[in-house]
Q: What sequence folds into this?
């Protein structure tokens, strides 16, 4: 749902949005991770006039993943390198989360300047309170999808290394995080249900644009017909094929055929209250 929402909203003429430019790719403890200075050296050493070959020549897998994610959003390897040089010149490093997020902020500001937009943003995995403290005027969108469908997707698509209880608790903690951020005075937070986005896209996008403070644009509804950077440079993204086909409801309720009765019962035993609260169960408990 997050990729769909980013793809739609990112078509707005005054918004530049990234996909998965996560700070976790830059963490010191990550396998094959590198420091900011080492990252600069690697990018310079692997330079190629062809961006695709340049990307493939990056020896660090975590750095290669980070740069591939940047390309999905329209940033080239040279943009990553130029922002990194500026970051290092200011004394920046990747030792702590604040430093890593500062580099991503710098990179996204470069993207906003590149595409001449007033606002920038993207998908994030960092603690929402940390992000709120860094960007007190930011708008936060929490994507929500039936947790049982999330589990079905994770078990059948990609390599999520999960099980019923792990997925159920992650979904639960995600909603708890949403509640915490929503309770902060002055925060701008909107819950976007995947099922509602698919059924009533204009309604949801108008609400989102209003919260951001930009006028609604119909181009956001025709996202799949546009020249999306994700479709040009998918780099293995699991959702790029479905994004190219436009809105579809085929994955809604997929858990009914993809999960066993036992898996559904185990999942619901953890989240029956939240599934009911957010309209995914019609029964009353």
A:
């Amino acid at each position: 749902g997050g990729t769909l929402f980013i793809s739609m909203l990112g078509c707005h003429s005054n918004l530049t949005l990234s996909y998965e430019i996560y700070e976790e790719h830059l963490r010191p403890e990550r396998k094959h991770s590198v420091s900011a200075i080492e990252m600069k050296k690697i990018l310079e050493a692997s330079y190629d006039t062809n961006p695709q070959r340049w990307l493939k020549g990056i020896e660090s897998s975590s750095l290669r993943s980070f740069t591939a994610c940047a390309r999905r959003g329209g940033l080239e390897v040279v943009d990553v390198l130029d922002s990194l040089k500026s970051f290092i010149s200011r004394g920046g490093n990747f030792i702590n989360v604040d430093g890593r997020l500062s580099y991503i902020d710098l990179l996204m500001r470069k993207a906003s300047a590149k595409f001449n937009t007033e606002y920038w943003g993207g998908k994030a995995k960092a603690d929402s309170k940390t992000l709120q403290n860094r960007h007190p005027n930011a708008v936060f969108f929490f994507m929500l999808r039936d947790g049982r469908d999330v589990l079905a997707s994770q078990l059948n698509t990609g390599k999520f290394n999960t099980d019923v209880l792990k997925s159920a608790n992650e979904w639960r903690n995600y909603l708890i995080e949403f509640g915490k951020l929503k309770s902060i005075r002055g925060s701008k937070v909107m819950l976007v249900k995947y099922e509602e986005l698919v059924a009533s896209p204009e309604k949801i996008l108008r609400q989102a644009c209003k919260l951001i403070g930009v006028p609604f644009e119909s181009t956001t509804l025709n996202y799949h017909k546009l020249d999306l950077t994700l479709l040009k440079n998918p780099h293995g993204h699991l959702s790029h094929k479905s994004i190219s086909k436009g809105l579809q409801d085929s994955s809604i309720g997929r858990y009914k055929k993809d999960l066993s009765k036992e898996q559904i019962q185990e999942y619901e035993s953890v989240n029956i209250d939240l599934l009911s609260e957010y309209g995914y169960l019609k029964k009353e408990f």
